[in-house]
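Appendix B, example 12.
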Amino acid sequence: MSEKLILELDTGVVTIETFSEQAPNHVARIKKLADSGFYDGLKLHRVIDGFMAQMGCPKGTGTGGSEEPNLAAEFNDINHARGVCSMARAQSPDSANSQFFICLDDASFLDTQYTVWGKVVEGMEHVDAAQKGEPPASPTKIVTFKSEA
């Protein structure tokens, strides 16, 4: 059963529908961290025009994660199309933790290498409006991130 998460950026509100059947552990992790307030106030630390917007690092550098253990990959056949939410990870396929990215455009070259866990169903223009850069000079921030009430 799919659920909705509400990602409020300082550029506007984004609604994400989850893919619980395809990536149950990743959806559960994102939901747990979101509802605990983990993501609130974090920066979009890597935003590449025409590619993706990455967030979820408590250090704001792309090098950090939560205190939860890393997740085993749940690769699926969902295409990395515009608006798709997928987990960021290090070299190891089983190293996803708290960081994720939202595709700004087609990124099908990532298919079956990263775990897709959701898709933006409303507010994609607010992701598009995020400050670009690696890292951005004045990064867009997550105001709140939580399950839909």
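The chain has one domain: 4-147. The chain has a mean pLDDT of 97.
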